[in-house]
Design a protein that fits this description.
With 138 residues, this protein is an alpha+beta fold. The protein is built from 6 helices and 5 strands, in the order βαββααααββα.
């Protein structure tokens, strides 16, 4: 493994994001349509949080019980993105070494990190990106 490989080499650069005032059902639609699991949340161009497919799954239970799909819709209508997202956000910069990002993932509860330079979202890196990178090394 290259010791100082920057995370910019493995991150997703064309990041899909949502605004704080978007609706949760729009978030669900993006997760389904794009087959992604994490979305940065922005307010006025600045990243304020992350929302994940797991965050949504914790709210809904339609898949667990028969004939409960309407209950999921009601829950999604009642809550806002800021109520569901992770707001206590940890970020990395585009020049953060891949190894350092891997260390963060190994000790924290995160599965994705926004890559931010000068308060501007440049990308997103996930545990899957790290695993693929490590597999490429072998």
């Amino acid at each position: 493994m290259k010791k100082r490989e920057p995370v910019s080499r493995i991150m997703t650069k064309d990041v899909i994001s949502v605004a704080e005032n978007d609706k949760l059902d729009e978030v669900v639609a993006i997760f389904r349509k794009k087959s992604i699991r994490h979305l940065p949340v922005k307010k006025g161009g600045k990243i304020t949080g992350m929302i994940s497919r797991n965050d949504i799954n914790r709210l809904t239970f339609g898949a667990l019980f028969d004939n409960q799909e309407g209950a999921d819709d009601a829950i999604l209508q009642m809550l806002t993105i800021p109520q569901v997202m992770t707001a206590d956000l940890r970020t990395v910069s585009s020049d953060t070494p891949v190894r350092e990002v891997a260390e963060i993932f190994s000790t924290a509860e995160y599965h994705s990190l926004p890559v931010v330079d000068n308060e501007e979202l440049k990308g997103i890196v996930t545990t899957t990106d790290i695993i693929k990178y490590m597999l490429d090394q072998y």
